Structure formats: C-alpha cells, structure tokens
Amino acid sequence: MAPIALEQPLNESSHLGCDNSLISDPQTIPDDHFTATSNYSYENKATCFPFRARFSLDYPDNETYCGAWAAADEFQNMDQYIQVNLSKMHSVRKIKTQGRTFVKQYVKSYKVRSSTDGSFFQTVQNSTAHGDLVA
C-alpha cells in the first residue's frame, strides 16, 4: 500500500468545511509543498510531478503535464508515497484520489499518515473501527 503522508496532525484547529478543497488551490498550498518518493515521466514530455495531484488544474500554454501524480514505473510495486506540507494545523475530513486519464495509473488502497515535524509519521487510526485508516 502506498501511504499518503500529511505533514500535520488531523485535528479540529482549522475551520475549512468539508466541501472546501485544501490542496487544489496553488495559492493555499504552494507547489513546492508537495513531495514524493518518485514521479513518472514519459519521454521527458509529461512528468507526473507531485503537485499534479491537485484536482482541476489548468495547463500552462505550451506545456504538457500529467493530470495526476504517479510513481515512476520502476517503483510501481514498492512503497511509494506523496507528501504534502500543510504548513499549519488543519482538520482533514476526507481524502479524494484520482487516477491518470487514459492510462492505468491509480492507487487501489492507501494509508493516511501524519506528522508534526515532517520526520516521524504516525498512521491515522480509523475513528469508526479499530486499526489503521486504510482506504
């Protein structure tokens, strides 16, 4: 499973509503706050950078990007992750994923982990059942 690592604990200190997207707006979370263990690239033309994990992004003129983050081919079956530095405490109530359009690059399951220091991560526990939060 590929964990999605959130660099802040999941708590109630932020008042974003469930319908507001925390990471989709580059003005809220800058592109350089997204990191990943690897990214897929096709002939150096379309690179699936971590910030491409945002939903509903416009493509800059004359540039080609993947419409999602995807791990490099050689690492598909290994523990790959994407990490987002939220910069401050936020309440994260849901996580939405997307695969790449027209190709079979998507996750089937993942774990959610959080950290206050970006070094030590704890797996988020499911509040309605015992054990790790696994989707």
From TrEMBL:
PANTHER family: MULTICOPPER OXIDASE-RELATED. InterPro entries: FA58C, Galactose-bd-like_sf. Coiled coil: none annotated. PROSITE patterns: FA58C_1 (PS01285), FA58C_3 (PS50022). It comes from Potamilus streckersoni. Residues 11-135 form the F5/8 type C domain. This is F5/8 type C domain-containing protein.
